[in-house]
Amino acid sequence: MAVGSLTTSARTAVAWRPEKRVTGAFLITGLAALLVGALLGPFQAMNYGDVNLYRYLPFLKSYYQGLTLHGVLNALVFTTFFNCGVLVYLPARELDLRPSVGWLWTSYGTMVGGLVLAGIAILDNSSTVMYTFYPPLQGSWAFYTGLALVVVASLMVAGEVVRLRARWRRAHPGRATPIVTYMSVTTMLMWSLASLGIVTEVVVFLIPWSAGWIHGVDPELARTLFWFTGHPIVYFWLLPAYVSWYAFIPKQAGGELVSDTLARLSFLMFLLFSTPVGFHHQFTDPGIPGGWKLVQNILTFFVVVPSLLTAFTITASMELGAHRRGGRGVVAWIGKLPWNDASFVAQVLAMISFIFGGAGGIVLASFNLNVLVHNTTFIPGHFHITVGTAVTLTFFGMTFWLIPHLTGRKLFAPRLAMWSAWTWFVGMMLFAVGMHWQGLLGVPRRAWISNMSPALQGIYADAHIPQVITAVSGSILMLAIIFYFTVLFGTLFSSRRIEEDSIAIPFQDRQPAHGEPMVMAMDRLGLWFLLAAAIVAIAYLPTLIHMFTGQLAIPGIRLW
Ligand code: HAS
Ligand code: CU
């Protein structure tokens, strides 16, 4: 029996090699982009520690060029590649259905093509427009076309994920979609709806404008289309991390997911409420009626709920695991969690950072508090403990089992992996303290303050302590980068081979009770998608129509 099952698993492992290769390509390209982007991070942190290290980077013309490279590679490129790898591989394995590998390689090639185009445009300093690329700052056509290709490729992958589920449903009529697939499909459906804004902005306006076919664009309309996608994109980054927290962490903690239904409900809520909230990035923008800002403000509080549900369900699931391992007490059970498993530790630290990241988000979502800190360093403080830690550190934790699973190589230096998780967490938490604090003092974000004249520095006289904290955090993060990438490259290139698939995907053993009315109702994703589109139309169309019909075309400018 044992021998028989071993051969079956070995055979399965070999059969899945093509999918593993393309998944590995997505993940490793994303992580390589992260490496380049993240190496610039300490330079940014030093800037806000009032130390100008940019002068030692002769291949960059300015802090702003470095910041553009940092933001685009980390926030846009790394996340999209990583998500497209995991959100198709995991459901395919769960459903035991082979995706079209040719289609996935085509998507991968498109995405790499986009990355190369945008990368060249940033490196030649023609597109120092930051990762939000607000007009009238004008980058080159290659920058916008490159980013458009990255988005198009992600939608091609989304199509494949939806197709996988459709194939499974045809073979299993009347059954609820298995949970990892459910979560992956809702994420991709949400992203398909959300990306309409950025696709319109880039294809209809920015590419023709940067290529010289039209002479101007309306900055307010462009910003509005950008934030149509720019808020929900943060959940496109977050939700693959949630997939891991819901689907794998309970098992890694020795327990099981306490509520399959709540997990689905939270993903469904993300599908419904992620997109119609972009105005909370534009509270201070003129041209958007206050009433519509209020509507989207209220919807922002709706989209907080699924994260609160997640906090509850995941903590309860981990507590169950700790109890099974002999843990007791109100908080003492925490000690019984597997604190010696780097994959688990990285993800729990990521969750802890998100408690603070989420709390900051709620502050930012509050109209009048937002006005106090908008466009200050408070904002990068917020997003380094959301996308920079909750998401990135979770992805690190996933790679500690996923890369060995995909490559058939043992994890290199597990103790160093543990160190990388702790140093990333400590570095980012300190960075967040320094940046939130400076933001409260009014220090602007995206400013080369370490290069300003000593006279100007007087404005920041109160900021010495948070500046020191920010600079120290940059140094700790440099160590974290070295540790993590040593583990990654060590695993890829020098680690011992292990039997393929001997590191299994930590899927739950228990499947949901099929036929439960609530689960079956939530499974009608086509209808829910239409409802999501309707809510978006109500929240956005009146303002967008007004903007489209009264455009004020502004020519491009270059400030760098
Ligand atoms: Fe945000 C700006 C509001 C979440 C990313 N956000 C940004 C920007 C980025 C970003 C990149 O309303 C800057 C954009 C730019 O460059 O201008 N954000 C929110 C709100 C949430 C939120 C309400 N943001 C995120 C996530 C991000 C992200 C997630 C990336 C992945 N954000 C804003 C607003 C602005 C903004 C304004 C504009 C600011 C301005 O003025 O420009 C919510 O989704 C947050 C809900 C989260 C929670 C936390 C739940 C906690 C969990 C962990 C539980 C812990 C456990 C561990 C289980 C309520 C799930 C237990 C441990 C044991 C050991 C037991
Ligand atoms: Cu937002």
Structural class: mainly alpha
Strand tally: 0
Compute the number of helices. 21
**Percent of residues in beta strands?**
under 5%
**Which residues sit in consecutive blocks of at least 5 with pLDDT less than 50?**
none
Question: Can you tell me the overall shape?
Answer: globular
Round the mean pLDDT to the nearest integer and report it.
Answer: 94
* Distinct ligands, ions and cofactors found in the model: heme-as, copper (II) ion
Order of helix and strand elements from N to C terminus: HHHHHHHHHHHHHHHHHHHHH
User: How far apart, in Å, are the first and last alpha carbons?
Assistant: 68 Å
What is the rounded Rg? 23 Å
Helix coverage percent of residues? over 70%
Major sheet attributes: none
Could you please describe the fold and organization of this structure?
- The chain is mostly helical.
- It contains 21 helices and no strands.
- α2 packs antiparallel against α19 (464-494), α3 (63-95) crosses α16 (387-407) and α16 (387-407) packs antiparallel against α17.
- The model has no long low-confidence stretch (mean pLDDT 94).
- The structure holds heme-as and copper (II) ion.
- Heme-as is lined by residues 132, 234, 237-238, 280-281, 300, 303-304, 307-308, 310-311, 314-315, 318, 334, 348, 351-352, 354-355, 358, 361-362, 364-365, 370, 374, 379, 382-383, 386-387, 391.
